[in-house]
Amino acid sequence: xxxxxxxxxxxxxxxxxxxxxxxxxxxxxxxxxxxxxxxxxxxxxxxxxxxxxxxxxxxxxxxxxxxxxxxxxxxxxxxxxxxxxxxxxxxxxxxxxxxxxxxxxxxxxxxxxxxxxxxxxxxxxxxxxxxxxxxxxxxxxxxxxxxxxxxxxxxxxxxxxxxxxxxxxxxxxxxxxxxxxxxxxxxxxxxxxxxxxxxxxxxxxxxxxxxxxxxxxxxxxxxxxxxxxxxxxxxxxxxxxxxxxxxxxxxxxxxxxxxxxxxxxxxxxxxxxxx
Length: 275
Description:
single chain; Outer membrane lipoprotein wza fold like; 3 domains; elongated; alpha+beta; five-stranded mixed sheet
């Protein structure tokens, strides 16, 4: 229509409106022309996104101009079984909220540790530990005598279930355990970590030294080039106290340590560390 001089343009008052928010394609405020239900509103908005959770669509409403109430609607009951009560009619001022689905993946287990392709694997019914841990997928230094299944219990605690990988391949029931959702299968290394100590203080070559199991302090100090002339060899500090030293609850030992602490001469020290 073409406007002419003297015309009056009348904009009527907006009618009943509802708001739609959440995981829908076009969240907005919509005006209601006729009776509109929740499913009709979702059609106007272009439907829900793939992340939209239809089993709990929330409807917020002002009731009798006195209070605000909330109602949870299971739209899947309407879509799948035609339950009309799960598709209520909308009123002026209603707010419809579509929540997202839980992003956590439950039909999966994870494989970790000394394997070629660690990560998440789909959990099929009846899958056991021996089916997941394939021989060709293990790294050469994988420890087969003991692997672990880390499982989340129903009380949300963690349970560690050890098993022998070879026995699982052989089909032994005590080792070939059936996996459950969210299980973590961990393959450890059979190579022991290198144990090192830090030698510092009045030695000729301070630094880190690899040690063998049961090696003594005197051996490590000798490898460090020996003591400097000003070193105090009677009391090197070490996490492990050699046998024959006074115990911590001995009064004579306490007096002796106090006398040593008063000595101005520095001491060599050892600090153990395992890589």
